[in-house]
UniProtKB/TrEMBL annotation:
Pfam (any one): RasGEF_N
Keyword Transport in annotation: no
InterPro entries in the cross-refs: cNMP-bd_dom, cNMP-bd_dom_sf, PDZ, PDZ_sf, Ras-like_GEF, Ras-like_Gua-exchang_fac_N, Ras_GEF_dom_sf, RmlC-like_jellyroll
Stated name of the protein: RPGF2 factor
Domain PDZ: 321-369
GO aspect biological process, one term: Ras protein signal transduction
GO molecular function: guanyl-nucleotide exchange factor activity
Signal sequence residues: none
PROSITE patterns in the record: CNMP_BINDING_3, PDZ, RASGEF_NTER
Superkingdom assignment: Eukaryota
């Protein structure tokens, strides 16, 4: 119940309280999880602490809240985490209060958490900034000055501020931690160095962006300890940047011919069938891809992998009813069956005539009748 009512809210780090019974505790958790204002109270508690006193849990709570705001949208997770560790909370209680004067030296980068402000420029233009918008310094230690006068539009405007020195250090440090992969003078992939724990043992580069071709190629490359789920993430999201799954399928069949990549290609296909079988079941081209892949495994005598693939397909396949009409009783069937009681196993479709009515109806090799 807690999860369904909370949506994607991270409940780790909620303050513990003494209660009379476990039942009361459960009810209180559900109440908290379903109340967005309670969530904001927890965030405010974390913000009001001195940055030096913030725990890892506090930073996770802030991270969960801040990543929803446009100001943090284009930042990597590690940048957001570092900003959350040093941000300071500020509240302006009254509407119409001047926050910054024209020509005033800027000393921080700020994001609006609640309320809105209006900037009146010397040329008469005005601009309104609201929740999630940012203002202030760029990531440089050079002196910068406010253009226009900024006033609060409503009561209780809330901000988080990051001192210029911290903002500059964090954003520039990240630039140093970036590894750019270039091909023919163009950047095709960007990776970021991350450390997952303080011991320094779990560290490496995680892919944060790349061209569609380069991301596809990375499926069969070595993945670092900090990026163990690249294949799963790719298979979950490729629909947003590739027009057809066969773009991946063709590459996998091509790479299978390279003996050094064969095991990696097979792992990708097994994960794909296990996690997203609907990509194959409703797509004739992808069904043919799977048949060709099975034939390749058979040809290379990779019996163990073939069994795993068959188990995965059998577990994920859905029952369906297919109706075929024959022009006459004597007309041959447009498919071949194998098996039966004399063989000691079920009846299966061995092959289907390409382009026949059976293909159109969705009958496939491997179907059990």
């Amino acid at each position: 119940a807690t999860e369904s009512e909370a949506g994607d809210m991270d409940l780790s780090g909620l303050p513990e309280t003494a209660v009379d019974s476990e039942d009361d505790d459960d009810e209180e958790d559900i109440e908290r999880a379903s109340d967005p204002l309670m969530s904001r109270d927890i965030v405010r508690d974390c913000l009001e602490k001195d940055p030096i006193d913030r725990t890892d849990d506090d930073i996770e709570q802030l991270l969960e809240f801040m990543h929803q705001l446009p100001a943090f949208a284009n930042m990597t997770m590690s940048v957001r985490r570092e900003l959350c560790a040093v941000m300071v909370f500020a509240v302006v209680e009254r509407a119409g209060t001047i926050v910054l004067n024209d020509g005033e030296e800027l000393d921080s980068w700020s994001v609006i958490l609640n309320g809105s402000v209006e900037v009146a420029y010397p040329d008469g233009r005005t601009e309104i900034l609201c929740m999630g918008n940012s203002f202030g310094v760029s990531p440089t230690m050079e002196k910068e000055y406010m253009k226009g006068v900024m006033r609060t539009k409503v009561d209780d405007c809330q901000f988080v501020c990051i001192a210029q020195q911290d903002y500059c250090r964090i954003l520039n440090q990240v630039e140093k931690n970036m590894q750019k992969v270039e091909e023919e003078g163009e950047i095709v992939m960007v990776k970021e160095h991350r450390e997952l724990d303080r011991t320094g043992t779990r560290k490496g580069h995680i892919v944060i962006k790349g061209t569609a071709e380069r991301l596809t190629m990375h499926l069969v490359e070595e993945h670092s300890v900090v990026d163990p789920t690249f294949i799963e993430d790719f298979l979950l999201t490729y629909r947003t940047f590739l027009s057809s799954p066969m773009e991946v399928g063709k590459k996998l069949l091509e790479w299978f011919n390279d003996p050094s990549l064969r095991d990696k290609v097979t792992r990708v296909v097994l994960l794909w069938v296990n996690n997203h079988f609907n990509d194959f079941e409703g797509d004739p081209a992808m069904t043919r891809f799977l048949e060709e892949f099975e034939n390749n495994l058979e040809r290379e005598k990779m019996g163990g992998h073939l069994r795993l693939l068959n188990i995965a397909c059998a577990a994920k396949a859905k029952r369906r009813l297919i109706t075929l009409t024959k022009p006459s009783r004597e007309a041959p069937l447009p498919f071949i069956l194998l098996g039966g009681s004399e063989k000691g196993f079920g009846i299966f479709v061995d092959s289907v005539d390409f382009g026949s009515k059976a293909t159109e109806a969705g009958l496939k090799r491997g179907d059990q009748v």
